[in-house]
Design goal:
The structure is a single chain. This protein is 31% helix and 37% strand. The chain is of the alpha+beta class. A hairpin with a 2-residue loop joins strand 3 and strand 4.
């Protein structure tokens, strides 16, 4: 089985969801996560704070600098993710489709390098 990252691409320029809409979205994503767990595909899930909560640590000439804010200045940021185990890319894409519908955001599907899991 291969590990895949399903990365939620969150548009920080979009209007903020109402509390009711947020609760509905969380219920939908929890349902998909529970389905993944039942199928034996789920490894880990996590939601992230908005990009202003980030700190970027950059190396250069043997030292590091730290700056507040996201690495990339863009409206779309990583908003959360699932790590899943799948037989193949088609199965990962099937889970990603369910995740995208549940959270209402694009999902980037990226396989992990095989060498990391030997």
């Amino acid at each position: 089985m291969k590990k895949y990252l399903l990365a939620v691409q969150f548009d920080e320029s979009a209007p903020v969801l109402s509390e009711e809409d947020m609760q509905e979205q969380m219920a939908r994503t929890a349902k998909v996560t529970a389905e993944m767990q039942s199928a034996g595909s789920w490894v880990f899930v996590g939601g992230l704070l908005p990009s202003p909560a980030t700190t970027v640590v950059r190396p250069g000439n043997g030292v590091t600098t730290m700056t507040d804010g996201p690495f990339a200045e863009t409206k779309e940021q990583l908003g959360g993710f699932w790590v899943i185990l799948c037989d193949d890319l088609d199965q990962a894409l099937s889970w990603a489709e369910k995740c995208a519908l549940a959270c209402g955001s694009p999902i980037e599907v990226r396989p992990f390098e095989d060498a990391q899991w030997k």
